[in-house]
């Protein structure tokens, strides 16, 4: 049975990838408009919605790809093997991109965790849940994960401040110098894509899995109501357990995943039912190519020394006219536009790179 492909899913995935490129590649990190930055610690900015939306779509796509095969009676063994093999390839790609940056930019330490590593881990876990569990079991896993992770954060000791929280202590003990942040004087480490916080990211992806099943069954109203309910529960829970992307708190997982579900329901009605153009689709069908290509090109520009002169000469007039934040944003928009052109050409020629 061939899984049905929804243009709305490709469009929302593509919008998330384009937003990732926009917020990850400013011209000057010292001058960025506040909405294009992550919250310093507690809180949720528009930028904090980007990665959760992508992970939510990973869950939706798993439901659409694996659900029909499971229901058609496919043997679970080959499905599990395919899921684990693809997840491993995504993790290895992430490590390769980090190795490229570590080598060419002469970074002092190699970072083990990262965006693609987290995507690969969540893809495997949710893919196995899609193969092994029926919808009721998937819901039970989601609720148990949210409750269990919330209990760990609140009662695991150390509070929720950045120094001393449970996730930070685990990253220090296991990742050490290979984390995103590491203080050689104290030995303290922390990674926003670290070990314990991956549980929260997995909850967002699981929410995408159960919402993908609703989409597959044609329950658009159920998808919308589920998203609204998840966002409301997340907002209510934030009164006790604040929104925090770095910790990926359960309230943050529900809030961002719920908003992503609402966005998907709207996109589904607008694109799949009303037939409007799926803006962002080219990014969506070549998400990994765009992310890996943008990372590589950014590293090469920085390592070659081209990015600085390019930023000053080409985008300097924008800074003179409208200020340094506008100049930084203009560079980011141009970067996204270049990659939008690349993936559009790839899509027109039928080149869809899968990891």
Automatic annotation (TrEMBL):
Stretches assigned to the Heparan-alpha-glucosaminide N-acetyltransferase catalytic domain: 5-145
InterPro entries: HGSNAT_cat, MFS_trans_sf
Transmembrane parts of this sequence: 49-66, 87-105, 111-131, 138-156, 194-215, 222-240, 252-271, 283-306, 326-346
Keywords from the UniProt entry: Membrane, Transmembrane, Transmembrane helix
Protein name: Heparan-alpha-glucosaminide N-acetyltransferase domain-containing protein
Highest taxon, organism lineage: Bacteria
Secretion signal, residue range per the UniProt entry: none
Organism: Pelomonas cellulosilytica
């Amino acid at each position: 049975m061939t899984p049905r492909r929804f243009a709305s899913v490709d469009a929302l995935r593509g919008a998330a990838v384009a937003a990732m490129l926009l917020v990850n590649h400013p011209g000057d990190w010292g001058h960025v408009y506040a909405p294009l930055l992550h919250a310093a610690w507690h809180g949720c900015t528009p930028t904090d919605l980007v990665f959760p939306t992508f992970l939510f779509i990973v869950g939706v796509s798993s439901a659409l790809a694996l659900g029909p095969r499971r229901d058609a009676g496919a043997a679970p063994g080959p499905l599990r093997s395919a899921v684990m093999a693809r997840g491993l390839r995504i993790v290895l790609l992430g490590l390769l991109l980090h190795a490229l940056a570590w080598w060419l930019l002469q970074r002092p330490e190699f970072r083990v965790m990262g965006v693609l590593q987290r995507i690969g881990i969540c893809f495997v876990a949710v893919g196995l849940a899609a193969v092994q569990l029926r919808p009721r079991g998937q819901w039970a896993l989601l609720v148990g994960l949210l409750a269990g992770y919330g209990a760990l954060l609140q009662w695991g000791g150390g509070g929720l401040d950045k120094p001393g929280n449970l996730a930070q202590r685990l990253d220090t003990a296991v990742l050490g110098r290979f984390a995103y942040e590491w203080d050689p004087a104290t030995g303290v480490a922390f990674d926003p894509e670290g070990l314990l916080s991956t549980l929260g990211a997995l909850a967002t992806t699981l929410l995408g899995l159960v919402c993908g099943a609703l989409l597959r069954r044609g329950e658009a109203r159920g998808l919308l109501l589920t998203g609204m309910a998840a966002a409301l529960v997340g907002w209510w829970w934030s009164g006790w357990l604040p929104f925090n992307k770095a910790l990926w708190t359960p309230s943050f997982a529900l809030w961002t995943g719920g908003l992503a579900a609402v966005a998907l329901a709207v996109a589904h009605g607008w694109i799949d039912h009303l037939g409007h153009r799926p803006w962002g689709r080219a990014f969506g069908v070549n998400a990994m190519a765009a992310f890996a290509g943008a990372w590589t090109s950014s590293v090469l520009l920085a390592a070659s020394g081209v990015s600085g002169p390019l930023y000053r000469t080409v985008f300097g007039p924008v800074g003179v006219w409208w200020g340094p934040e506008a100049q930084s944003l203009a560079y980011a928009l141009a970067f996204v536009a270049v990659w939008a052109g690349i993936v559009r050409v790839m899509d027109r020629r039928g080149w869809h790179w899968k990891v």
